[in-house]
Amino acid sequence: MRLQERIDEQARRAELADAYAPVCEAAGFLTGEVFYQPEDLLFLAHKIWGALEAAGLCEKFRTYDKTFPSAFSTDYVALLESMTDAARAELRSQIRFEPTPLRRKK
Hints:
Elements: H1 3-27, H2 38-54, E1 62-64, E2 72-74, H3 76-82, H4 85-94
Antiparallel strand pairs: 1-2
């Protein structure tokens, strides 16, 4: 892999971490006990979002687009921060996720 490709790959991974770590942290998964790779954060955040949607908790934290009323965004971090510690613990217990095993390059 050329130098520029490695730099681009690290930038992509940093963007993943920046985008998805806040949701994982607000849910209480980033305790320092488990190492998550940036790609793990992406998949874990999607599982968290799915669990929140399934529980019907998202509507209060949605912002609808005025131009396209069917388009919306959900503030998952605010939703998670509004939950009690017990509710977040219950949410974590419902999510089954194993991080990617670390592999060393030879």
